[in-house]
Design goal:
This protein is of the alpha+beta class. The chain is built from 16 helices and eleven strands. The strands form four sheets. The chain has a three-stranded antiparallel β-sheet. Helix 2 crosses helix 14, helix 2 packs across helix 16 and helix 13 packs across helix 14. The protein starts with a helix and ends with a helix.
């Protein structure tokens, strides 16, 4: 009997030591809390899971795409960028991965960052013949322009954004003006959002540029229309994204790859927590819902992270081992 008890105590001690070693191995971790909502929430989700599930000690640091990447590449800190939109740093990132300084983890946004021309789902349901932008341009009466319902409206990207140029070029390439449409140029993202809110309030059509993931697409059911062609990067660089290009062609917006990136030192010290970083991802529809809740409740990034962890256990539960999931649930 004494031997059995001793064996039990020894096994328990080994388990406890293993848990302590795991926590000690993870140690101190710094995570970039980027200055846009989806990335800020992701950073706080990571903080909660790493602290409560893996015993790490996590510090959040303010971040943005270019400076965060440069700091990780040059100084090895912060340890983690949960949501790095890599298109603007693709070449130096590839070099850093090849040279062993950085590691590309999971694709944080499973579908990538998505841009395009969207319309209300109710319009799509009522008009199943409209599946492409070209189909929509046959029906200017469904998308009345503000102050001039005799014209259809294509709502452009906010002032000062690069997509303002590409959307204007696509409007030109599609001969949208000849089809009875006018290009509406909002002064800000808030003005663009308000145009969507107004259209839904009035139950009228809306057609124009938008992107995902966003709170607006979590609040309003919209569908993205096809341009009928694949994205042509060469043509995009030659003309679609060039101001006042004289001869634009129909093109599709690129899908932005959005990955988690970690430093080599994190991968070496984090132990099994590294498996989490290589696994976790969420889809845009889920992010849209969380962003909408955050916006409606004027919540913080951590509030939204807790909301996600409390209401989407079927998603994040697949990112971690069952014992880790139980620790996270117990801490909520």
């Amino acid at each position: 009997m004494k031997k059995t008890i001793a064996a039990i105590l020894l096994a328990a001690g080994i388990h406890a030591l293993a848990g302590s070693a795991e926590a000690a191995e993870c140690g101190n971790v710094s995570i970039a809390e980027m200055n846009w909502a989806s990335a800020g929430i992701a950073a706080n989700v990571d903080k909660f899971i790493l602290e409560h599930g893996y015993g790490c000690s996590v510090t959040l640091v303010a971040g943005d795409t270019i400076p965060t990447f440069a700091s990780m590449n040059d100084k090895g800190e912060p340890d983690v960028a949960p949501e790095l939109w890599i298109s603007s740093v693709r070449t130096p990132l590839n070099r850093a991965i090849e040279e062993g300084r950085l590691i590309q983890g999971a694709m944080m946004l499973a579908e990538g960052g998505v841009e395009g021309w969207w319309m209300p789902k109710s319009i799509a349901d009522a008009h199943p013949d409209i599946r492409t932008v070209q189909d929509a341009l046959k029906h200017p009466e469904l998308f009345p322009a503000p102050g001039d319902p005799s014209k259809g409206a294509i709502h452009n990207c906010p002032a000062g954004w690069n997509c303002r140029t590409s959307t204007a070029n696509l409007f030109k390439a599609l001969d949208a003006e000849k089809a009875g449409f006018k290009l509406v140029n909002p002064d800000s993202a808030a003005a663009l959002d308000q145009s969507i809110a107004d259209a839904f309030a009035k139950q009228t059509g809306w057609l124009g540029y938008y992107w995902a993931p966003t709170a607006t697409l979590g609040k309003y059911q919209m569908v993205r229309l096809s341009f009928g062609v694949d994205h042509d990067k060469t043509e995009w660089d030659r003309c679609t994204a060039v101001p006042d290009c004289p001869n634009p062609k129909v093109n599709s917006y690129p899908i932005s790859d959005v990955f988690t990136v970690v430093t080599r030192s994190f991968s070496e010290k984090a132990g099994v927590a590294m498996n989490y970083m290589m696994t976790r991802e969420w889809d845009n529809a889920t992010v849209n819902k969380v962003l909408a809740w955050m916006d409606q409740n004027r919540a913080t990034n951590m509030d939204a992270a807790r909301y996600f962890l409390q209401n989407f256990q079927d998603i994040w539960g697949n990112w971690v081992r069952p014992d880790v999931a139980e620790k996270v649930k117990a801490a909520l």
